[in-house]
Amino acid sequence: MAEPTSTPGSKPTDTAHLTIEAWSQGFLIGSLLIMASITLANMRSGVLLHKLILVELVLAAPNGFFTFFNPPVWGWYLSSTAVLLIASWTLHNVISWMKNKPFLQPRGSLIYISTIFLVQPYWVLELYANFTYFNGINHRIFVSTRPLEALCRDPWWIFTTANLFWNIKYRYEFGLIEIIRVSPRFGILLFSMCLSLLFIALDLLAVTPVLALGGINPFWKFASVFKCLTDTIILDDFKTALDKLSRHKMNQIYQLPFSNSGMGLPVDWTDINGRGAVRVSRQGSDDLVSVQQVERVPDTAYLSISTADSVPSPLPIAFMRGDKGYMKRE
Question: Which CA distances in Å does 201 have to 140, 150, 157?
Fold first, then answer.
């Protein structure tokens, strides 16, 4: 929300302050518009998480226009759109819970979502304080409640960020450079998370005497943009995204024939003189896999393959078509 000016509760009149405020609002609106467009282009119908991300972006947008108005409309518009902004922040925490939920135990998941709703009384008080402050009714309440805003808005996001880094490192055993190389999109996600935490810290300092900016504070807008960006870059939950990267990593390590035959790839089967032959074809410059000589084997045939770690890995090699199974002759 907007911050106190040199004249408490009034619209900034200093040219430099007004320029910073207008620029930060333009940054907020432009970013939200682009992210909403990307979300619409990539969202899948029937997926609740994708719809909630779009709603989150739409709710945050109206608060980015209050600089266009003069008092008394300025104060009324700022305070009324703050309701939508806070709803967007709360929804962001719910989205973070949904994305983080597959990594949480049931008890941890319950604590996560319940504490989000337990802080809602603070936001009711904050909305009242915001209205009285920016409409010249009472200046004391907002000055007291504003420093507590980060405490009731960001702990869940900080936990989500830390938990994601932990799972990447210890559950999926990805190094930071490795995951960026495998998926630049995931690298942007992690970078956006770190930037959002930086601006959260600056926002907290800006509402205390530690960082005096003359009453202008653009940092909460920057933090909001980068938090929304993390929702937009990867619309699915984090586990789904990391599982895809993990499968890609394993396919790169173990380049086995037919390793992708169960992934919906086009397969041509040809039976030659009762012995059988199979040709696996894929679209792409280097994706053609062919088998020159095969023979029929029992349907239950399995082959034990030793991996690089010398751990036997039983893999089914009976590629079925009706009642026929085929395997490559070594």
Answer: 24, 9, 13
